[in-house]
Write the structure tokens for this entry.
Amino acid sequence: MSIDLEQFHETFFEESFEGLDIMESGLLELEQGDVDLENINTIFRSAHSIKGGSGTFGFTAVSEFTHDMETLLDQMRNGERQVNESVVETLLGSVDVLRNMLNAIRDGSEIDTESVAQMTGAIKGILGEENTDAKTDDDQNTVVSKKGWLVHFTPYIDIMKTGNDTVRLLRELNSLAENAEVIIDNDALPPLSELDPEECLQSWRIHLIGGEISENDIREVFAWVDDECDLKIESLVEEESEAAPEILDNKLQKTETESRKAERRSTKPAESSSIRVNISKVDELINMVGELVITQSMLSRFGEAEEFNSATIERLKDGLAQLEGHTRELQESVMRIRMMPISFAFQRFPRLVHDLCTVFDKKIELVMTGESTELDKTVLEKIGDPLVHLVRNSLDHGIESPQKRIEAGKSETGVIELSAFHQGGNIVIQIKDDGAGLNKDKIINKAKENGLLSNEERLSDDQIYDLIFRPGFSTADVVSDVSGRGVGMDVVRRNIRELGGAVEVKSTPGEGSVFTIRLPLTLAILDGQLVGIGDETYILPVISIIESLQVKQENINEVAGNAEVYRLRDEYIPIVRLYQIFGIEPVSTQLENGLLVVVEAEGKKIAIYVDDLLGQQQVVIKSLETNFKKIEGLSGATILGDGTVALIIDIAGLIELYQKDMVNVVPIKGGGIAA
Amino acid sequence: MTETAEEISQLEANKEFKELLTFFLAGEEYGVDILRVQEIKGWDSVTNIPNTPEYIRGVINIRGSIVPIIDMRLRFNLEKKDYDATTVVIVLNVVNEGKEDRTMGVVVDAVSDVYNVPIDDVKASPDFGTAVDTEFVTGLATIEEKMIIVLDIDHMLNAAELAVIDQISE
């Protein structure tokens, strides 16, 4: 009757990683001098669950490693060890090692035994030194009874509901002793018909005979269920001769069925990608569906009505208005299921800032606000890296060294503020530092050096700051480990654009800079500009549109007799005739008869020629890939009010398509040159 | 070696049957596994998809999903025909190994009938050499003295997609 444990692996990893995060944030709090017993307890419990879990699943390397951490934490918990920086550092390091180990196991790759051994050494080193206090305490419990032990184990009724398995405990006890005898007390059990398999009503008496067992060993077995059972351990002096003891294995089988049921209920099936949803969100959804059903039944009565008069029409209108409201609410509720608090992305920063402060020898306080702001799960997963880059950047380039700060008359400790909030249908994330601010001259010089700027160009401050997002730009004099990995701010901007968002920077010399990221609430809905080309309707994302304009003939220029550009103030913007690229029959090929929509993606601007602008609306994005495939120049499709499908244009893809098109077209016209 | 009636009916029962939905295309009758058919609907306008081969007519909205529509005449290089009252779209569930099932629609001249065909009666199609492309044909079945061409829709509709990729990457 073996249980396939693999199905629970995913849950174990999920919980372990959560535990590691808890440990990490707890340790960081400790480091800030906040030695709170509750905090140490929290860290200890996380370590303990990981150890227990890994033991159950047979990840010995993990459980052994965690065991040493746990010993150290236990000493801290009991006040036997001073909490100092080196201990916390070591534990933080161990958390990293543990995370790597778990990752390795999950991916089925090799565990980096070297770093594990190194860390174990470090922990053992701490444990070994000035550990006298702990020893005396341990000694009390390490008395070994040669004769054996009698363990009275009376679990509370709810023990199985917390996912514990009494059989596992008994089995573990069994492995300690050479000979184990178990007496079960079944008296409290109700008849089978009234039996609730999730309740534990039995109690056990276990005789452990032989094997050198200390009381500590036994206590350790029950450590998980410490507060969920009554446990009495007696040293055996004389032979017990009470009721005839039964063999453990027999009992095991009897209880196993019940325990398995309990276990099955407490664990959810493994899934490759899952999402934890607050039960209140689901309840909300159920409520909405209920409302919808009521509205539907109300409306269906009109279908049966014999005739319509002005009163029924009035009621029908009311009903339809209700239906519209409910539908919208339902839509929002469903969207909310995908939303997760941004703290998932923020939680890594205390650690990051802590580590980087050591690297750069800076003093920085990290302030985070609005962690409960919710974001679409996909956006959340993808926003992490750009955020890390921006925070690193603020830390590296923004905040000055302590001396410089004192010279500038500021506090020695710099402040980085990470905040998230809603603003007009967008999520805004700000990274604010009180450092030196961006150096305008340096940016201009650098831009000129890299050919991003000509000598004559005059730019506003904001335009200058915006240069840092251009590809091939980095202001760091020395390429540091942190900022200069060839990943520039241009990548940050591109990543954020891919999420349908935007990033901008404001800066005041001497006072600091603010990076503002604006993200759409969800990836599933987009503000769309409907445009008409011939008989077709396409959708442009409003976020990419700079402006729409009527064509003035004198502003059109031709380059090399083929490519057309439009002069818009000081810029020359290539004109993209969408009908050409998409092979559509347009209403008119004369530019004056249509409109130009100037759009920007990844720093490139194009003017798209369309026949007509048809209005703006929010559209639900549907993937073309689900049933078909990705089409170049399109990011998806949507369903319009009349049930027809309209395609959404991917501006960046369109620009690529246009450039490819130019390459293809030009040689045909200038064929003579090539030959 | 005479078999009793009972034995014969037993044999019949042991035979594995397959239900085929058949349709007409340029005078020939083709069949697809009926379990793959999601629905049959009349021809309605589609939204064109740029830069795709002609046989991909476009996409339509079927209860909120975007479903591509493929013209079978064009796919098989048959003569074009204007869509009329009998023209239908058969919406099929396409299995692609290792990936999620997809929904695709095919435009055919008209639906014909549903037949129960013993699997063993589907004969492999003869080798026509290069003259006829039998790549998408599972086999030929004879029902009521008619020949029915049984199509391998998974192969055909996944290949249809591959063709698009090839063209773009050129």
